[in-house]
Specification:
78% helix; 0% strand; globular
């Protein structure tokens, strides 16, 4: 339970920086976007997760029966980049994506 709570807090906390990073990347020009992608910034990470929201909603609503490609990419990405996500179920991660 503690791992899940820590992950949800981490995921929720990243959302504010993601929106700021995404906005800065679009308004600052191509050189800013290129450098943030190569530096491993959270804005690219969050883009994968944000694009999976619709798939996550379908997954949660269907109790895990409907799995979209964007959700699969986000789940894989979250588990690769966040230690706490490795122990969470797909349904828990999908709910965390929706809670953002």
């Amino acid at each position: 339970m503690l791992v899940r709570t820590a992950f949800v807090l981490l995921l929720t906390g990243l959302s504010a920086s993601a929106f700021a990073g995404s906005f800065a990347g679009t308004s600052a020009g191509a050189s800013s976007a290129g450098s943030s992608a190569s530096s491993g910034s959270t804005s690219g990470d969050d883009k994968v997760v944000l694009q999976a929201r619709e798939d996550a909603a379908g997954f949660v609503a269907s109790d895990g029966r409907i799995r979209g490609a964007r959700l699969e990419a986000a789940l894989r990405h979250l588990r690769e980049t966040h230690v706490a996500a490795r122990d969470a179920s797909d349904l828990e991660l999908a709910r965390a994506i929706l809670a953002r």
